[in-house]
Amino acid sequence: VLPPGPLTDALTQMYKTKACQADGILVGHTTSAAYHLSASGTGIYGDYVLVIERLLKDNSSVSISSATQIILTRPGGSLTLPDGPIKVDLGGHPLLTTGVSYLHFLRYIPKSTAYRAIDGLSTLTLDSNGNWNIANKNFSQIALPGFDRSALEPMITSWVAACK
User: Fold this and answer.
1) Distance from chain centroid for Cα 65
2) Which of 50, 94, 118, 164 is deepest in the core (most CB within 10 A)?
3) What confidence tens digit (pLDDT) does each residue in 10-38 have?
4) Would you call 40 helix, strand, or coil by DSSP?
5) How do strand 44-57 and strand 24-37 relate by DSSP bridges?
6) Quick check: 113 pLDDT over 70?
7) 142 pLDDT higher than 70
8) Closest CA to 30 of 135, 150, 119
9) CA 49 from chain center: how many Å?
10) DSSP 3-state assignment of 46?
11) What string of DSSP letters covers 109-132?
């Protein structure tokens, strides 16, 4: 857990900004994933079925308030190609695990009607103590003060209401 101070304040401000930038913010868990080779043939991405547990910000252009699940697209994954198996796990966008609760700050992809994380810090995981941790592996599951579930989710709702 990081102590209160400049870094914690900067990260809190960063998530407040993300709350206004996001097309949707939700808590959910994945039930399945399908991995694909990119159109250029140089990368792998995954389409995850994300069950919505709690919607903190609805998409103003295409509402998801009545949806029970969405498709979340993320870089990385694993495939078996003619030359053999390949796995790409990017630390900034780690592969999602079935059954784990995630908090996502999302952008809508109109062409596919799926969603993607705003950036590598836009996905948080819920730990067994009820704290939201940054999923980005470069942050090694850092727990931040005030990012427990009972405090962060209402805080995000107030940030969304204050967006201009």
Assistant:
1) 18
2) 50
3) 888 899 999 999 999 999 999 999 999 99
4) coil
5) antiparallel
6) yes
7) no
8) 135
9) 13
10) strand
11) ETTTTEEEESSTTSEEEE-TTSEE
As a whole number of angstroms, the distance between CA 43 and CA 161 comes to: 38
Question: What is the rounded CA–CA span in Å between residue 30 and residue 32?
Answer: 6
- In this prediction, residue 116 carries a pLDDT of 96
Nearest Cα neighbor of 77 from 119, 32, 131, 136 is: 32
Q: Which of 154, 156, 63, 147 is nearest to 108 (CA)?
A: 63
Q: 103 pLDDT exceeds 60?
A: yes
Q: Which of 50, 27, 45 is nearest to 35 (CA)?
A: 45
Q: Rounded to whole angstroms, how far apart are CA atoms 15 and 143?
A: 14
Q: Is 28 helix (H, G, I), strand (E, B) or coil?
A: strand
Q: Residue 36 corresponds to which tokens in the numbers above?
A: 């694909």
pLDDT band at 139 (very low <50, low <70, confident <90, very high): confident
- C-alpha neighbours within 13 Å on the C-beta side of residue 129: 11
Q: Is the pLDDT of residue 3 over 70?
A: no
Would you say the C-alpha torsion 113, 90, 147, 127 has a positive or negative sign? Answer: positive
CA distance 32 to 34: 7
Question: Which one is predicted more confidently, 1 or 33?
Answer: 33
Structure-token pair, residue 76: 């990385």
